[in-house]
Specification:
The chain has about 375 residues and is α/β, with parallel strands linked by helices. Helices cover about 30% and strands about 20% of the residues. It is built from ten helices and 14 strands. The strands form two sheets. Strands 1, 4, 5, 6, 7, 8, 9, 10, 11, 12, 13 and 14 form a twelve-stranded mixed beta sheet that branches. α1 packs antiparallel against α2, α2 (about 35-55) crosses α3 (about 60-65) and α8 (about 210-225) crosses α10. The radius of gyration is 21 Å and the shape is globular.
Length: about 375
């Protein structure tokens, strides 16, 4: 149950009204024309509103801010308070009453680990969906394309509604004539794939799969069985952990080359995101760089003293999102290692920061959506 933190709360209605007004102003801008400096200024005001809102609507967050003497508004994005993302596994962090809960997302994780729980009200869920649409339309266009999903339809029927299921349902909105490439045994559903491939050969289609599953259950099976599909106009979206692929010495270039060889597609885009910040995903551009979207940002911190890293210096990824009002997930310290690779200089034309994700912190669990598939799963490719 959400509880008010101690002290006299500010006028929450006015806080949220101010938040909505500033958020709408930022959403009207074009990501290609907003410099990092201008975006940081907009985001700081928005995130300070969220910082104040969650202090007084989520007792746990308020207590953390008091303990760390961080009740006041921050003077920069780098000085905003942040929560370790694993706290969402240990605490019920929400800023809404039980009656306002619209949906509860569960992050992926190993079977031995408690999944994170993310509490959404209707407003936050709608905000996330709208933002996700705006981000992805830059890559796949506004027209809904026939969609091949590299997963089993049984995953979206799971009442636990995992992050994997949420990811599929979220991306399915961008497609039509959906075809699931895998059966319930995680083996290729050849009749369905062949019908889809024949119907949409040399036509624009959308393919989505979590990174490891796309590789192991689709691309590698096609390669082993010496089969090729004629989906040259496909746009391939994928996301999730690279750990298992790295163990197999598969890098991004190899991944894309194999997709080109087996199905003919040239347009392959990775994206980085998490259940704790649905909506603000970092999509790979045509130049191969992951971009921070307009309503989000990233800071990289030294793993030893948590100071802000310089450009190109590897550290822990901190992600900022302007979207969540139902839970205090606007500033999160992840367990991912990465680097900021450019600011306002990507050849693709989009301004802001680009990042590279280098992997997980040592001794943290593998939690990418695709990594939740184990080697014991039937149909898995070693």
């Amino acid at each position: 149950m959400s509880e008010q933190s101690s002290g006299t709360p500010p006028n929450t209605i006015n806080l949220l009204a101010d938040y909505e007004s500033q958020l709408n102003q930022l959403m009207q801008l074009d990501v290609s024309t907003v410099s990092q400096a201008d975006k940081s200024s907009y985001l700081l005001n928005i995130l300070n509103c969220l910082h104040q809102h969650h202090q007084h609507q989520c007792q746990a967050y308020g207590n953390i801010c008091v303990a760390n003497q961080q009740q006041q508004s921050a003077s920069s994005l780098a000085t905003l308070p942040y929560l370790a993302v694993r706290l969402f596994k240990q605490l019920e962090l929400r800023s809404i009453e039980t009656a306002q809960i619209f949906k509860v997302l569960q992050s992926s994780g190993t079977t031995s680990q408690t999944p994170a729980r993310v509490f959404l009200d209707k407003a936050t869920s709608a905000r996330q969906s709208k933002t996700l649409i705006n981000i992805l339309q830059r890559t796949i266009g506004k027209q809904r394309l026939p969609m091949l999903i590299i997963d089993s339809p049984s995953i979206v029927k799971d009442p636990k509604f995992s992050a994997r299921a949420a990811g599929i349902q979220g991306l399915a909105f961008f497609g039509r004539d959906h075809c699931y490439a895998l059966d319930e045994n995680m083996q290729l559903n050849w009749p369905a794939i062949e019908v889809f491939s024949a119907k949409y050969a040399d036509k624009p289609v959308l393919i989505f799969g979590f990174t490891f599953m796309l590789w192991a259950y689709f691309i590698q099976v096609l390669k082993q069985q010496n089969k090729q599909l004629n989906l040259t106009q496909a746009i391939v979206l994928h996301s999730g952990g690279w750990k298992k692929l790295e163990e197999q010495k598969v890098d991004n270039n190899t991944f894309k080359a194999q997709i080109k060889h087996t199905i003919g597609a040239n347009k392959v885009h990775n994206f980085y995101g998490m259940a704790e910040q649905v909506g603000t995903i970092f999509v790979e551009c045509a130049q191969g760089h992951l971009h921070a979207p307009l309503l989000a940002d990233v800071i990289v911190r030294n793993p030893y003293d948590f100071s802000v890293c310089e450009m190109g210096e590897q550290g822990i990824i901190q992600v900022l999102s302007a979207l969540p009002t139902s839970y205090p997930g606007f500033s999160l310290l992840t367990e991912d290692l990465g680097r900021i690779t450019a600011i306002d200089t990507c050849p693709c034309g989009q301004l802001g920061k680009t990042i590279a994700i280098d992997g997980r912190l040592p001794q943290t669990e593998v939690r990418g959506c695709s990594d939740t598939q184990t080697s014991e799963t039937r149909g898995a490719v070693a």
